[in-house]
Amino acid sequence: MPATIRDVARASGVHISTVSRTFSAPHLVNPETRVRVLACAEDLGYRPNRAARALITGRTHNIGLIVADIANPFFPPLIKAAEGQARHRDYHVFVADTNEDPVAEEDLVHALAKQVDGVLLCSPRMSNSLIEQVSREVPVVVINRQVAGLPCVMMDVGQGARSAIEHLLGLGHRRIALLGGPRGSWTNREMRRAAAAAARSGGADLTVLGPNQPTETGGGATAEAVRRSGVTAVLAYNDLMALGLIEGLDALGLRVPQDVSVIGVDDIALSRLTRPKLTTVATPTAAAGRTAVDMLLQHDSDAPRGARGRGAAAGDRRTTAQVMLQTVLVVRDSTGPAPEPGRNGAGA
Amino acid sequence: MPATIRDVARASGVHISTVSRTFSAPHLVNPETRVRVLACAEDLGYRPNRAARALITGRTHNIGLIVADIANPFFPPLIKAAEGQARHRDYHVFVADTNEDPVAEEDLVHALAKQVDGVLLCSPRMSNSLIEQVSREVPVVVINRQVAGLPCVMMDVGQGARSAIEHLLGLGHRRIALLGGPRGSWTNREMRRAAAAAARSGGADLTVLGPNQPTETGGGATAEAVRRSGVTAVLAYNDLMALGLIEGLDALGLRVPQDVSVIGVDDIALSRLTRPKLTTVATPTAAAGRTAVDMLLQHDSDAPRGARGRGAAAGDRRTTAQVMLQTVLVVRDSTGPAPEPGRNGAGA
DNA sequence: CGCAGTGGTGCAAAGGTTTGCAGCGAAGAA
DNA sequence: TTCTTCGCTGCAAACCTTTGCACCACTGCG
């Protein structure tokens, strides 16, 4: 039913190869012929079949984007940015959600492998070695993780955590908790390392609570533990957890920031809407999405997948840039001076 | 470099057609042969090329999902549900974001058409006639809109709006505003119609403000207009706008729910986290996603796209079910009794 | 007049898979 | 024994497009 290149050829009285060229290399065909072909194509509603094209060119003009949880407001801006950048270059983005499950993640990347030209692995939960393995099957750019030998775009959450801790130190806090994120998260390790170092050099105690589900629920579930730990400030793995925690503390009768200061990470749109407005480490998610697409497409345009032999030994184009994007602490209303010792049941 | 069906055939000493059958119709091949082939395939890391398969079967095993704004928390649950349901049936979901732009929407559906077996049009902004047109190019299921002759899954926002208005009437409100959503939204029209009817029969005034961008910003921008209108309660097009409005009213010194009651629509996760917690009309988004996938896949499995002629006249299998899912009002803290007349500057 | 160059077009192979049909050997029936 | 039947496998066409190569008719130059 849908018109093929052959129908157009028949209708316009030329060979199919001429029709093909009319679309993929217009400068090679006589202007008169071209307009005739285009007219017929328009007439028949012809649109090139991308699958067939992919089969022979080895490029699908699709890229896959695998995220841990599309419902986490951290991801949509990244997805939108990636989509926009991809669209500029006539690519489409295939978004898939793993529900924070490393196994689903692997399945998905395999399933995607053959129908995309490359995959963006965003905040992966699988092991580095697995990532290296799949990267042999399909070009990969990793977001929010450092993997040796692979192109990566990271956000400097280490710096962010340091700023956050220093902000808290400046407000007089000396007992601070870090709400850990999910197992397998690179961000989590980086934050932990940086926060521990900053706390130590500031003479403060850092209690690590976790791992936790990186959601409101996960954050809320730690409220009791936070209270028992007697800290006066908390740095959460992300904004969602921070908001959940604030809610949970509220239910326990602890107020933010009077009793406990809370800092999140990501600066999701929502963090400006809650009360109190959330102090948070803003991450450049849109920039990360754009950059990752650029890296994939560049890293990928030099060697069409189904390349017909003749290729250089393969492996020589390993530029594998790794870029680190800056984060910035945004101070809002969920942080305040440390409460007077003893006023709130720190040790109680 | 990636192993093809031919490599596996060579390695296991059978014809490629046997390998093909091993994967697509295992019962047709001798168990011994099968295990040998599977072993070789495993060994070579062979995975069927979906593009090539699509070329001949006419089915890509992908479905497209077009949403207006992936950053709107209304969509992720729907997307996740659709993905889950699709995955069960060995389909993948291709998500694309139109940024609320009807033109981008049309482009996208055309671009997607050839690489998916069907498209889910979620909260479309384009005209009905355009939708009918694209539905001739690729099977379509429409979500959140009623289009004659096309399978649709809708949420009963009319009922929801009615409940919301009645809730407000019960609290004594008589001057109510409806914050309209974007132009072209079916939901918007339905809400408006139902809200107007409910208000009229309750003896209340309904002021319609809009259209507006269906975002926090869009909601916040109406705060001034809401104040000037002198209403004591507002029903917003969605939760995001409701939250933005609350924020905006706060900036004007009006408190929710003491001075103004606010109701949203969608019951996004976030509406439980804000203060005050939002009273809202909960929509069954996950169910909508699942249902839409089911309808598409059923409606679609009877006639493989590239069907080799012989087909019945085409158009006879128009079952075109249209399902309406129920909504329910969730009362939380953003609604309260109407303020005493005159206490708040209604007419001022 | 001959020849090289050039712009436009056709030819056919290739890409990886599915599938209707035919063929083969063995088992069962007559 | 001969004829079916049946389970399994091979053959080859088909899906739609791209692209290197060959071909043709001109043009312009020597």
Write the layout of secondary structure elements.
2 copies of one chain form a homodimer.
Chain A: H1 5-12, H2 16-24, H3 31-44, H4 50-57, E1 62-67, H5 75-88, E2 92-97, H6 102-113, E3 119-122, H7 128-134, E4 140-143, E5 152-155, H8 157-170, E6 175-179, H9 186-201, E7 205-209, H10 216-220, H11 223-229, E8 233-236, H12 239-251, E9 261-266, E10 279-282, H13 285-301, E11 322-325, E12 328-330
Parallel strand pairs in A: 1-2, 1-3, 3-4, 4-5, 5-11, 6-7, 6-8, 8-9, 9-10
Antiparallel strand pairs in A: 10-12
Helix pairs in contact in A: 1-2, 1-3, 5-13, 8-9, 11-12
The structure holds a DNA duplex (30 and 30 nucleotides).
Describe what is shown at a glance:
Chain A is an alpha/beta fold and 348 residues long. The first copy, chain A, is 41% helix and 16% strand.
Would you write up a description of this structure?
Chains A, B: This is Transcriptional regulator, LacI family. Chains A, B: Keywords: DNA-binding, Transcription, Transcription regulation. Chains A, B: Residues 3-57 form the HTH lacI-type domain. Two copies of one chain form a homodimer. Chain A has helices spanning 5-12, 16-24, 31-44, 50-57, 75-88, 102-113, 128-134, 157-170, 186-201, 216-220, 223-229, 239-251, 285-301; strands at residues 62-67, 92-97, 119-122, 140-143, 152-155, 175-179, 205-209, 233-236, 261-266, 279-282, 322-325, 328-330. Chain A has three domains: 5-48, lambda repressor-like DNA-binding domains (434 Repressor (Amino-terminal Domain), Orthogonal Bundle), CATH 1.10.260.40; 58-154 and 284-302 and 320-326, Rossmann fold (3-Layer(aba) Sandwich), CATH 3.40.50.2300; 157-283, Response regulator (Rossmann fold, 3-Layer(aba) Sandwich), CATH 3.40.50. A six-stranded parallel sheet of chain A has the order 2-1-3-4-5-11, sandwiched between helices. Chain A has a six-stranded mixed sheet with strand order 7-6-8-9-10-12, with helices on both faces. The first copy, chain A, is α/β, with parallel strands linked by helices. Mean pLDDT of chain A is 89; it is low at 303-317 and 344-348. At the A-B interface, helix 4, helix 5, strand 2, helix 6 and helix 12 of A face helix 4, helix 5, strand 2, helix 6 and helix 12 of B. Chain A binds a DNA duplex (30 and 30 nucleotides) through helix 2 and helix 4.
